[in-house]
Design brief:
The chain is α+β, with helices and mostly antiparallel strands. It has 15 helices and eleven strands. A six-stranded mixed sheet has the order 1-2-6-3-5-4, with helices on both faces. A five-stranded mixed sheet has the order 7-11-8-10-9, sandwiched between helices.
Length: 427
């Protein structure tokens, strides 16, 4: 019979022996940096453009995400229908999203069809027009989605958390409200696009079984000259006031409360970041974490509770989030504080330490599985201004961190008296 108290034998080797491949570096004719990660047996690749055009760069909420979404909805020579039909016909598809710091748009295509799909892809990146009709359609959809989400306590708490930590005037503290939808216009998108979606503000990552013609196609179709455009304005970052804050958001006719707690913390370029991330995993970063065992399994207060690190380019924070019955809100907060105190005062057992190390080994190995996954990890490092030495530090930490080091880290970075709190729910 399976004994779940015994840690199974594992074949995962010491991560310190794992060395990540370095991408090959080129420059396109326009000067755009190009990184390639070759691998895989299938004749397909991913071409990814990354722009410094995330939410931190916008002058109004929603502008960055709307701009990135509407790139595919019309250019000076192609309609949105022509773009979608061409890509569908050749079995290609687009991926696009924004982060607080960057905007990403990627093309997945079979190599044999690149000469058909790359021209369309480059066209929508560098010649988008943002038709008024398409803008209005997206605006209506997003207003409806916002109204639906705004009735959910989890959404309300999460939406308020970053402004509470960073401050509303900080580039990371912007908040979407109903007013945001009234003041945005298609012209805002065109202005943001003209400033941020330029070759000198881009980098390209190609991953997969890379066709030798892909680079020549990019050189052929990316415009060499552009009309004079304003330079991307850098956000004005400042150090947020690190006081402890709390806020209660009243949401009527709900049976649950959403709790979000956390604090500003160190970023990935700090020498102790890997230890902090390890401690965060122990606290609430996996299904067997201390928060899950206590608040879900022992107390039955919630279906799920988790803690995670959120590193950004110019800041970082950690957050703990859960939804609980309204009458259990204060009891849950007490248990969160209790587990944070236990993390800094009660050392992990040998078994718990080994369990977390094995979990992180497996998670990391999966996250580097294949050229496209490697490209994702490289992009994350590139966004942060780091390189693969960061992950070598993570690997080293997982293999060598001790229970005493976790106590030290928790005392320094996870003190229960230094958390900000947002609660959304019934009074």
């Amino acid at each position: 019979m399976l004994n779940r108290k015994i840690i199974p034998q594992t074949t995962i080797s010491d991560l310190r022996n794992l060395h990540l491949p370095q991408p090959e570096f080129y420059r396109l004719q326009t000067g755009i940096p190009l990184f390639t990660i070759h691998g895989g047996s299938e004749a397909l690749c991913k071409i990814e453009f990354v722009f410094d055009a995330g939410a931190a760069y916008q002058s109004k909420p929603l502008v960055a995400s709307f701009t990135n979404t509407l790139l595919k909805d019309g250019t000076t020579t192609r309609s949105s229908l022509e773009i979608s039909e061409t890509l569908d016909y050749y079995g290609a598809y687009l991926e696009y999203y924004t982060t607080p710091d960057t905007a990403v748009i990627a093309l997945y295509s079979l190599n044999k069809h690149l000469h058909h799909t790359v021209p369309v892809f480059i066209d929508l990146i560098f010649h988008a027009t943002f038709p008024e009709q398409e803008f209005r359609l997206l605006l209506d959809q997003q207003i409806q989605q916002f109204q639906i989400n705004n009735k959910k306590v989890q959404y309300r708490a999460a939406k308020r958390f970053k402004p509470l930590l960073f401050g509303k005037s900080h580039p990371y503290g912007q908040e979407v409200t109903e007013e945001s939808f009234r003041i945005i216009s298609a012209e805002d998108l065109r202005s943001f696009y003209a400033t941020c979606y330029t070759p000198d503000n881009a980098r390209v990552i190609i991953s997969g079984n890379i066709d030798r013609n892909s680079v020549s196609l990019l050189n052929r179709y990316i415009p060499v000259t552009f009309e004079e455009r304003p330079k991307t304005k850098q956000p004005e970052y400042f150090t947020p006031v690190s006081d402890v804050h709390s806020e209660i958001i009243s949401v009527e006719h709900v049976v649950q409360s959403a709790i979000q707690v956390g604090s500003l913390t160190i970023n990935r370029d700090h020498q102790e970041y890997a230890q902090v991330e390890f401690a965060c995993t122990v606290l609430g970063g996996y299904f067997g974490s201390r928060l899950m065992k206590n608040i879900r399994e022992d107390k039955g207060y919630t279906y799920g509770i988790g803690a995670r690190m959120v590193p950004l380019k110019n800041g970082a924070y950690y957050t703990i989030a859960a939804e609980v019955a309204a009458e259990l809100t204060q009891a849950t907060l007490s248990e969160i504080r209790k587990e944070m105190k236990r993390l800094r005062t009660e050392a992990l057992s040998i078994e718990e330490l080994a369990l977390v190390k094995n979990y992180l080994r497996g998670t990391l190995l999966r996250s580097f599985d294949g050229p496209m996954a490697l490209a994702e990890r490289f992009r994350e490092m590139s966004d942060a201004g780091l390189d693969n030495r960061y992950y070598q530090k993570v690997f080293e930490t997982i293999e060598t961190i001790s229970a005493q080091e976790i106590l030290y880290t928790a005392e320094k970075y996870f003190h229960e008296d230094r958390i900000s709190i947002v609660i959304a729910g019934r009074k």
